[in-house]
Structure formats: C-alpha cells, structure tokens
Amino acid sequence: MTAVESVAVVGSGFAGAAAAILLAEDGVDVDVFDAKAEVGAVGSGITIQGNAVRALDRLGVWDRLKDHSYAFDEVGLRAPDPAGTVLAVVPDAKTGGPDYPATIGAYRPDVARLLVERAEEAGARIHWGARVEGLEQDDSGVDLIWNDGSGLHRDRYDVVVGADGLHSTIRAVLGIDVQPKRIGMGIWRAFVPRPADVTRTDLIYGGPCYIAGYCPTSEDRIYAYLVEDAQERTVLSPEEQVATMRRLAEAYHGPWDEIRASLDEHAVVNYTWFTQHLIDGPWNRGRVVLIGDAAHSCPPTIAQGAAMGLEDALVLADLLLSADAVDDGLWQRFSDRRLPRATAVVEASMQLAEWQLQHKRDGDVPGLMRRVAELVSVPA
User: Fold this and answer.
1) pLDDT digits (tens, 9 = 90+) for 63-83
2) Which of 135, 158, 268, 375 stands 20 to 30 A from 49 (CA)?
3) Which conformational region is residue 207 in: left (phi greater than 0), alpha (psi within -120 to 50 degrees), or beta?
4) pLDDT bracket for residue 234 (50, 70, 90)
C-alpha cells in the first residue's frame, strides 16, 4: 500500500501535470485544480534540454511531442557584425543520455496541452476555473477549499501539491514569505517563420542586447528572443511592442535579417522579466508541498527551468508511491533529493546572468556549463 490514495494538485503546468500523470497512472485518485478557464501557456517557444526530454519520455509524452518539436545536438555562436558571422559551433551535452537529442525546441502551448491530455488519459480529473480559497490540515489529511464560480467546495486529500507557478497561491496560504525577485533583465520573445538555414540555436552576445538568440520549434517555425535591461514595457501597445523588438533586432544579422522582416503588423511578441527565487529549506508544510516554479525559479540562461519542475514531480511521485506513510522521513528524503540539485541550477543560472549584467568577459562559462551538464545528466 502506498502512502497516498488521494492527491490534489493545484496548477496544471508542466510540474503539476507531470505529478498528476505519475500518481494517476499508479492508481492514486487525483484532482487537478487550475484557475485558468482552459489549458494554456504563454504563446511562444521553449528550449528543452535532454534531461527534460528524458522526463517527458517517462511521462508518456515524448513520442507525441516529436511531431510538435525540432531536435538538434549543437549550439552556434555568432558575432554582432553586419554578416552575423558564425564564430563557433559547439556540440551540446546529451544530458538525457544517448537515446535522446541534446536539445529540442517546441511551442510552449503544445507541450502544455500534451501534458494535460496525458494526465486526463491516466485518470486525473482537471477542474478548470477553480480557485483555491484555503487549506485546513491535520495529521491525517488536508481539506482543500475551492471555488469554481458556483460556490465553495471542500474536499479532503492525503496530500496537496502546490504547482501553481511563480506567484503561487498555495505558497502564500502556507505563509512562506519567499517571492520571485527581478534580476534586472527582460526578454522579448516572438514566434515567427523559420529561416531555412536555422537548424539549431544560435546565440549572439553584444550589441544593444545581452543576448540575441533563436530556437527552431518545428519545420516551419522558430521562436526568437532578445534579452535587454529590464524595462516597463507593458505600457506599450501591441504595435509598439513589435516595433520595439524590430528596432532592437536591427543590430543583428545573418538569420536575424529574415526574422526581423517577420516582425510585421501581424506579429505577436511578449515581454517578461527574468526572476529568481528559491525556498531554501523544506518545500512542504505538513502534508502540503510545493514543486516547480512555486518552489524555485531562475533566469533561462541554461534552459533548465522546465526540467527542474518535471524532475520535482518525478521525485515526489516516486517517494509518495514507494513510501507507506506520509511522515517527516518522506519529506526529508524529498528535500535531500531536490534541494541541492535545484539550488545548483538556480545558482548557475544566476551566475551566468550576473556575468552578463556586469559585462564580464572572463567568466568561466564553459566550465560552468560543463558542471551543470554533469549534474543533470544523472537522473534525479
């Protein structure tokens, strides 16, 4: 008999859907609550490293995602010159092992949809438009109080998993006073047609932005991004946002000439700030536990954010399904397996960002990337 028979998961994002899949497919009664009206995610791309692909395979999603993604095994570096000169092409570490690509690009909403569909197939019930209003717990379980617009409901679970993102309601309800902090960088993202010669991620350092990059997400689409000093860009109209990204892109060439031409009146771009936070200690309070962005976030400088959330879910499900009691020992084992790894990834991501913010050119980027690759190549 496992430690849990019923679990509530708050949040249907990558970490929440992953936890729901693993628990439901092993016979646990799973309810997923999401305040959104339907499955959705920011409509741009995502770069997913091999260790996350390995996790997606365990979740039964990788075979389906192959048709909605673009795989590659190297990364290019280009100069911020009029030709967009290729300076180097470097093999990327296969952190998921030899059976998986080093990296894939995908349209984030596609990944979110496939994960939710898989959770429902496994038997999880998804409650859309359901807002959590409170939690009450004792030694034997947790009462979840939620509202779907028809009034308050109260249901009891053995464990509640808070996977409700950066601005987690569950984190606030638990009284954990840790908030994402802006680090001083903002990123423009656009989802545009793929130039024929874009077959991998290329990065340009220098010019008006810290990074100009792109990642192919399918045979015909890429997402392109520009990282700048964080600014209040939300006051701009959609047309002004597109014009601003196009203006910043004028400094970059090679495939960027074609990308820039795609930033026309029909283009959709989005702008977000990079943040960082980490709950430096237990991620649970009693029988309620936080995973994914509710527990930690970091700038996407090493593209490990999604991987860490997926790994949180895999480890948590493994422990809940293999233990015979929800006790301090279970939570200590979870902390032992997740906190050091998440901390190392957050710190490495922040180190790269700080080097860029300081315009430091002598940082040991290859050494840092090698250490992260070695760490995440070992299954969580």
Assistant:
1) 999 999 999 999 999 999 999
2) 268
3) left
4) confident
DSSP 79: -
* pTM for the full predicted model: 0.96
Q: In what order do the strands lie in the sheet with 69-72?
A: 45-49, 103-107, 69-72
- Distance (Å, whole) CA 53 – CA 59: 10
Question: Which of 223, 26, 224 lies closest to 110, judged by CA?
Answer: 223
Q: Identify the three-state secondary structure at position 186.
A: strand
Q: What whole-number distance in Å separates Cα of residue 135 and Cα of residue 173?
A: 7
29-34 vs 6-10, strand pairing mode: parallel
270-313 pLDDT, tens digit each? 999 999 999 999 999 999 999 999 999 999 999 999 999 999 99
- What CA–CA distance (Å, rounded) separates 124 from 60? 15
CATH, domain 182-274, list 1.20.120.610, 3.30.9.30, 3.40.50.300, 3.30.590.20: 3.30.9.30
If one looks up domain 6-70+97-180+277-377 in CATH, what number appears? 3.50.50.60
For the chain, the straight-line distance linking the first and the last C-alpha, in angstroms and rounded, comes to: 24
Sheet strand arrangement including 6-10: 125-128, 29-34, 6-10, 159-162, 288-290, 284-285
Could you give the C-alpha distances from 145 to 81, 170, 242, in angstroms and in order?
Answer: 57, 12, 42
Which of 314, 341, 349, 316 minimizes the C-alpha distance to 330? 316
